[in-house]
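pinging the channel bc i need a second pair of eyes. not urgent but kinda urgent?? the chain im working w is below, pasted from the shared doc
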Amino acid sequence: MKSITSRDNPFFRQFIKLEDSARQRRTTGLTLLDGIHLISAYYLALGSPKTLIVSESGCENAEIKRFLAEQAGVEADVIVLSDVLFREASLVKTPTGIMALISIPPAATIPVHKDGRDETFCVLLEAIQDPGNLGSILRSAAATGASDVYLSEGCADAWSPKTLRAAMSAHFLLRIHERSNLAEVARTFNGKVIATVLKAKLSLYQTRLTGPIAFVFGNEGMGLSEVLLQATSEQISIPMPGGTESLNAAAAAAVCFFERVRQMER
């Protein structure tokens, strides 16, 4: 194990840049996982990360000690940060004690041919700018068996630490395609391409969702672009008898995804 106690250390400076900069993540092809849950899920899906980063106090944590002992034979560098530096680097109020540096996996390397993944079910996201909402949508998509998620140019960074935390390991179950031409994806999809629209006449519960489906969601403030709307085959609304004006994108997506699950299981 190598210990780092100085803010001037080149690794620590790179580490901080990866947390703060989407451009740095794209340029280096690297990102960070925070916490045992995410790191364990990465191990199971894709193998060893490049580097494990542990705080001094994390080295004494029983769960982290057990995890490090179990991974002793795996080729991953382990770096110990002083508690002060780890706390400075952590994006959460209560640091988890362990992070990992990983290469961002290309979409094609994600093993979706298992655990009920369904290649006739995908999701298109336009200008979802909040990383928490994006992560929640990815989590629901993975939970309901989607295989692919396509993100437009204006979406939040799918591989930011905030999005990764919100998605709770969904990234390792989905093929995520960033900076996609959504209209082209919609036009070439072999099935229904369904957009949720506030004033659509057709309800979610009135449409058949048992065949190949691509759900389309946009920024709740701006809605979907006209170009993408024209590429859809069906527009639906989600009934809201309580009178609220709208749902946020993550809630709307979850409702639609699980209605598909319900119909598939009938």
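so The longest helix spans residues 249-264. and The longest strand covers residues 118-126. — does that match what u expected or am i reading it wrong
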